[in-house]
Design a protein that fits this description.
Blueprint: H1 10-39, H2 42-50, E1 52-59, E2 65-70, H3 78-81, E3 104-108, E4 119-120, H4 126-132, H5 138-151, H6 160-164, H7 166-170, E5 176-177
Parallel strand pairs: 1-3, 4-5
Antiparallel strand pairs: 1-2
């Protein structure tokens, strides 16, 4: 039996128009995205990710200087680049597990070092901290001295992590030493 001829209802016409519009938008999106990705220089990201970075290493190392190291190098890996550490290197205040950043200066202090403007955490005053160390203001200086007054003398510069938080404290290790 033959199906009788019927006119499309208004709902079916709207549904068909919606499908056509949806399909058109989808095709346009695919064409545009393929154009964008084909003109994008994907190698630029790869080159930046896997290229060398520049770091200045100095202090108690056998060969201080500027080194180009692979992106993703950790501070502990620098020992191989600088020909090892000197016998009297003090690694307590150096985060050997941190990643090297491009343009960074990494200083490996000598054991018992007091020169180069380093301050003894156990005798430095709030005023000295505020005046002599870039990045330490009155509030941070107060925290450092209050911690010493509350907990006793510092035993390592790494204790600054407890006062300032590890990320902030790492920036200041090179400015201090601890004399017990």
């Amino acid at each position: 039996m033959a199906k009788p001829f019927t006119f499309e209802t208004e709902d079916k016409a709207k549904e068909k128009a919606f499908k056509i519009i949806w399909l058109t938008v989808l095709i346009i999106a695919i064409v545009v995205s393929s154009f964008v990705y084909s003109t994008n220089d994907g190698d630029a990201y790869e080159d930046a990710t896997y290229s060398n970075i520049c770091v200045h290493v100095k202090g108690a190392v056998n060969n201080s200087g500027i080194y180009y190291v692979p992106w993703g190098t950790r501070v502990c890996d620098l020992e191989a680049y600088v020909g090892g550490f000197k016998e009297n290197v003090l690694l307590d205040g150096v985060n050997l597990a941190s990643y090297v950043k491009d343009g960074e200066e990494i200083y490996f202090p000598y054991s018992g070092e007091k020169g180069m403007g380093a301050l003894n955490l156990n005798i430095v005053t709030e005023a000295e901290l505020d005046a002599l160390v870039d990045g330490i203001g009155a509030g941070t200086a107060r925290k450092i001295v209050e911690y010493r007054n509350t907990h006793g003398n510092y035993t390592s510069v790494v204790e600054l992590d407890d006062v300032l938080g590890k990320t902030k404290a790492e920036k200041f290790y090179k400015y201090f030493y601890v004399e017990k």
